[in-house]
């Protein structure tokens, strides 16, 4: 079986070195997008682990986590032993849709992610500048605690959404609450379409703590910066697996 690297000269163009604090999510995004775009055709094998890790400038451990995520999402299958490797599969939830439906879906997801990237970091900064009420402080702490102690993927995602809504609520803006509710509702539906990745959740928990601590300390710059990374991490996963 041929590898995708042998079949497409575009591999070098689409797989770029990963930088920053979201290596896992960036690997999933780049590999998932390459599969969706046909750079890695169905039925071919991905380049070997060493080559991919070097091309993406990540550790083999991080690459394995990303491949595992793609496998859980149905993008690839892996055969162990001599002659084995990672084979690109037909992704049913993508290929069952007509081309125009897929493009409409991608546009909707991209639009939501852009809106979120604009709204949520700003909400963090504004919340940190606000003289928070006891109710807002309690809501933030409770939402953070519930996210960290969630005992199932469904419970975690609901608690995650409540935490983001609590941040918006702390800004005391009815219009912001409306927009944030719309964003979180859409985001929740998208996340329910992809598997639950522990590596991403560990990153999210750490980011959530930094964001809430920044808001409560009045450090808007830190809260906004961490939320920017947090939003970008989620966007990378959704872009790679859905859009």
Question: Overview of this structure, please?
Answer:
The longest helix is centred in the middle third of the chain and has 31 residues, at 99-129. Strands 1-2 form a two-stranded antiparallel sheet. The protein has two domains: 4-95, Arc Repressor Mutant, subunit A (Orthogonal Bundle), CATH 1.10.10.10; 99-241, GntR ligand-binding domain-like (Four Helix Bundle (Hemerythrin (Met), subunit A)), CATH 1.20.120. It is mostly helical. It contains twelve helices and two strands. Strand 1 and strand 2 form a beta hairpin. Helix 7 (99-129) packs across helix 10 and helix 11 runs antiparallel to helix 12. The protein starts with a helix and ends with a helix. The mean pLDDT is 90.
Topology readout:
Layout: H1 4-7, H2 11-14, H3 23-36, H4 49-56, H5 60-72, E1 76-79, E2 85-88, H6 92-95, H7 99-129, H8 134-149, H9 153-170, H10 174-191, H11 198-216, H12 220-241
């Amino acid at each position: 079986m041929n590898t995708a690297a042998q079949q497409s000269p575009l591999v070098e163009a689409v797989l770029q070195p990963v930088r920053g604090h979201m290596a896992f999510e960036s690997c999933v995004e780049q590999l998932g997008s390459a599969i969706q775009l046909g750079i890695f055709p169905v039925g071919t094998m991905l380049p070997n682990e060493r080559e991919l890790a070097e091309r993406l400038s990540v550790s083999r451990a991080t690459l394995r986590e990303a491949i595992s995520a793609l496998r859980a999402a149905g993008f690839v299958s892996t055969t162990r032993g001599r002659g084995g490797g990672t084979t690109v599969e037909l992704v049913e939830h993508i290929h069952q849709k007509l081309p125009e439906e897929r493009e409409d879906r991608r546009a909707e997801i991209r639009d939501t992610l852009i809106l979120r990237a604009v709204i949520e970091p700003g909400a963090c900064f504004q919340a940190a500048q606000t003289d928070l009420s006891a109710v807002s402080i309690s809501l933030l702490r409770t939402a953070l605690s519930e996210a960290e102690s969630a005992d199932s993927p469904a419970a975690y995602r609901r608690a995650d959404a409540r935490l983001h809504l609590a941040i918006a609520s702390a800004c005391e803006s009815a219009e912001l609450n409306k927009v944030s509710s719309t964003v979180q509702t859409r985001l929740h539906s998208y996340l329910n379409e992809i598997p639950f990745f522990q590596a991403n959740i560990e990153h999210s928990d750490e980011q959530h703590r930094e964001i809430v601590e920044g808001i409560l300390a009045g450090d808007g710059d830190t809260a906004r910066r961490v939320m920017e990374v947090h939003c970008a991490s989620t966007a990378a996963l959704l872009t790679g697996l859905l859009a």
